[in-house]
Amino acid sequence: MVETTLPEVNDSAGFQAASGCSDQALADLESYRSYLADWNQRMNLIGPATLDIYWNRHAWDSAQLLRLAPDALTWADLGTGAGLPGIVLAILGKDRPGFHVHLVESMAKRCRFLTEVVTGLQLPATVHQSRAEDLSLAVDIVTARACAPLSRLLGYGRPYLRLGADALFLKGQDVGAELEDAAKSWDFEADVLPSLSDVRGQIVRVRRLGRGR
């Protein structure tokens, strides 16, 4: 059964208690936060105000996906932007043999940021400057956060799902309307799971995606 009680993740200690991460992973997440703060002064990566709630809004919101797919080793994060959730997943999976995250982003300047973080923190991740739907990677899980409405996300994720991936898409409180809209164009099976970072958040898990209608 998926947890529904939201843990208190207001700081790094709260994050470590909720996630069970190592001290090294926590240090890497602190470094990632510093990268975000630095680069955010030059380009729009995340809302500046969300740096103050980084541990819950960004780190824990991303990390919770690992609970839904604990055995998954390969991930593709579509339209990753600032690296959320992909960078967080790569940090937490850094010491797991075979763990790898594909960070898919079409904007060159964001890819430069992602490459600096991946290189600086020596993460098990590959940056792909590409449109999500133009790649076809064999992964266990395809994910996305704040990337596009579900109807478009299914199109982006279809090449990965066709190769056997499941999808975990982080969504907000309007997920019901998105599912209804997506059903007009796609034949798919999905369930909706509660977020552990925000009572308004939802996670759409897609296990099967048929042809668009």
UniProtKB/TrEMBL annotation:
<keyword id="KW-0698">rRNA processing</keyword>
<keyword id="KW-0963">Cytoplasm</keyword>
<dbReference type="InterPro" id="IPR029063">
    <property type="entry name" value="SAM-dependent_MTases_sf"/>
</dbReference>
<keyword id="KW-0808">Transferase</keyword>
<dbReference type="InterPro" id="IPR003682">
    <property type="entry name" value="rRNA_ssu_MeTfrase_G"/>
</dbReference>
<dbReference type="GO" id="GO:0032259">
    <property type="term" value="P:methylation"/>
</dbReference>
<comment type="similarity">
    <text>Belongs to the methyltransferase superfamily. RNA methyltransferase RsmG family.</text>
</comment>
<feature type="binding site">
    <location>
        <position position="84"/>
    </location>
    <ligand>
        <name>S-adenosyl-L-methionine</name>
    </ligand>
</feature>
<dbReference type="Pfam" id="PF02527">
    <property type="entry name" value="GidB"/>
</dbReference>
<comment type="function">
    <text>Specifically methylates the N7 position of guanine in position 527 of 16S rRNA.</text>
</comment>
<protein>
    <recommendedName>
        <fullName>Ribosomal RNA small subunit methyltransferase G</fullName>
        <ecNumber>2.1.1.170</ecNumber>
    </recommendedName>
</protein>
<feature type="binding site">
    <location>
        <begin position="132"/>
        <end position="133"/>
    </location>
    <ligand>
        <name>S-adenosyl-L-methionine</name>
    </ligand>
</feature>
<keyword id="KW-0489">Methyltransferase</keyword>
<feature type="binding site">
    <location>
        <position position="145"/>
    </location>
    <ligand>
        <name>S-adenosyl-L-methionine</name>
    </ligand>
</feature>
<dbReference type="GO" id="GO:0008168">
    <property type="term" value="F:methyltransferase activity"/>
</dbReference>
<keyword id="KW-0949">S-adenosyl-L-methionine</keyword>
<feature type="binding site">
    <location>
        <position position="79"/>
    </location>
    <ligand>
        <name>S-adenosyl-L-methionine</name>
    </ligand>
</feature>
